[in-house]
Design goal:
α6 crosses α7. The protein is α/β, with parallel strands linked by helices and about 450 residues long. The longest helix has 16 residues. Among the domains are: about 80 residues, Glutamyl-tRNA Synthetase, domain 2 (Orthogonal Bundle), CATH 1.10.1160; about 110 residues, no CATH class. The structure holds glutamic acid.
Length: about 450
């Protein structure tokens, strides 16, 4: 059965970059009728925070990306220790004692000689007595996985066939000197034991994947199908990594972005399929195809989310926004006409507040000097309220009759006088909602 996972580290809020990973894995699982696991990669006790564990779940819930199971790596440390023991028994695990400064020096020397900075496996040559001496002097070492120096190949679901020479990669450290299990090991143990069949993640993980494939095989497992999506860049192609912190899902939510706008964009961005606003997740599942995604960096512009949000809101039935209308004080009997009037003139639901304030309190009129007399004459012709759907047509007909003005010269000054702005909703739809007309009360 298809099983995928989203495996965030709870060291911060999830942002658009993480969302891309989460969404692709979620869509694959849902499309196949499989299982989607939310896996919290919290083996780093220093950086992992409960606050973020909660926040990740809230953000996914906001989007409707439901999970079938939640797992926490911090509760599976015994599994990782068992896997480490097996690697040790197989002779695929060795302890190394170099300090970060020493490693850095080695790297610099290699680079100076024009060689790739790959760990030289000096620790492999240590005798048992030398290891004991180093351990006595420096404490526990780190544990490295001994790669087989062969080509590691896999058919990547997005990048196509990949082939990496293991000799060009350092033997990965899987356990730190303080005993902390690192992601590379924890992740393969989980992927294998949880039956994960498909892994989509960012292309910054390609080298990890190569080493993980060898570790999985060493432990007797079958590697999942891997796919690596391109990384997001800003609209001009600039690196987004530093700005991702400002693109947290909760910030977008606070700015009024609708979940379906975000999902509709992220489920198609970087693919050959057009970005179209969808009403619900099932529509996104139907058209999703991983093979339509390309390897080129994907441009992301946060501003694209606002027209999509506006578009989404325009098609919402009253029932879906009734709560919001009540919250901002629109009386129930006006809810429907108000929504129909306002929905094409908002970007986010917050904008409704502005339109309701206009209906309730009237606007600060905008009257050009040249129109002052005209507007005064027109307002004198405005019938007593309450207005109805025909008021605008009959009133403007009467004003035209009295003043001889027509077209834009007739309508624009009246719109500006009544709404304080040059554009906005249909006046015929707005009039019945106006509780107060400026200049007349
Ligand atoms: N915790 C890892 C990360 O956030 C997971 C990567 C993976 O999907 O394997 O980068």
């Amino acid at each position: 059965m298809t099983t995928t996972r989203f495996a965030p580290s709870p060291t911060g809020y999830i942002h658009v970059g993480n969302l891309r990973t989460a969404l692709m894995n979620w869509l694959i699982a849902r499309k196949a009728g499989g299982t989607f696991i939310l896996r919290i990669d919290d083996t780093d006790p220093e950086r992992s925070k409960e606050e973020y564990v909660d926040a990740i779940q809230q953000d996914l819930e906001w989007l409707g990306l439901t999970w079938d199971r939640i797992e926490r790596q911090s509760r599976r440390l015994d599994r990782y220790a068992a896997a480490a023991d097996r690697l040790r028994e197989m002779g695929r695990f060795y302890e190394a004692f170099e300090t970060p400064t020493e490693l850095d020096l080695k790297r610099k020397k290699q680079l100076n000689m024009g060689r790739p900075p790959v760990y030289d496996r000096a620790a492999l040559a240590l005798s048992a007595a030398e290891r004991d001496a180093l351990r006595a002097e420096r404490g526990q070492g780190v544990w490295r996985f001994k790669l087989d120096h062969e080509r590691i190949e896999w058919p990547d679901g997005i990048l196509g066939p990949i082939s990496i020479d293991a000799a060009s990669v350092s033997d990965p450290v899987l356990i730190k000197a303080d005993g902390q299990v690192l992601y590379t090991l924890a992740s393969v143990v989980d992927d294998t034991e949880m039956g994960v069949t498909d892994v989509v993640r960012g292309s910054d993980h390609v080298t990890n994947t190569a080493t993980q494939i060898q570790i999985i095989r060493a432990l007797g497992g079958t590697p999942p199908a891997f796919a690596h999506h391109s990384l997001l860049t800003g609209p001009q192609g600039e690196a987004l990594s530093k700005r991702l912190g400002t693109l947290a899902l909760r910030d977008l939510r606070a700015r009024g972005v609708q979940p379906m706008a975000l999902l509709s964009l992220m489920a198609r961005l970087g693919s050959s399929d057009p970005v179209e606003i969808r009403s619900d997740l099932s529509e996104l599942i139907d058209g999703f195809d991983l093979s339509h995604f390309g390897s080129a960096p994907t441009k992301f512009d946060v501003e694209d989310l606002f027209p999509l949000t506006a578009h989404y809101l325009q098609t919402r039935p009253l029932a879906e926004v009734a709560g919001k209308l009540a919250e901002i004080g629109v009386p129930q009997d006006l809810a429907e006409p108000f929504w129909l009037m306002a929905r094409d003139n908002i970007t986010t639901l917050e904008d409704l507040k502005r339109w309701w304030a206009l209906c309730r309190d009237g606007a600060e009129p905008m009257i050009d000097e040249a129109d002052r007399a005209f507007v005064a004459e027109a307002l004198a012709l405005l019938p007593e309220g309450p207005f109805d759907a025909g008021t605008w047509a009959s009133w403007t007909a009467a004003v035209r009759e009295a003043t001889g003005r027509k077209g834009k010269a007739l309508f624009m000054p009246l719109r500006k006088a009544l709404t304080g702005q040059e554009s906005g909703p249909e006046m015929a739809a707005l009039m019945p909602l106006l509780q107060r007309v400026p200049g007349r009360v």
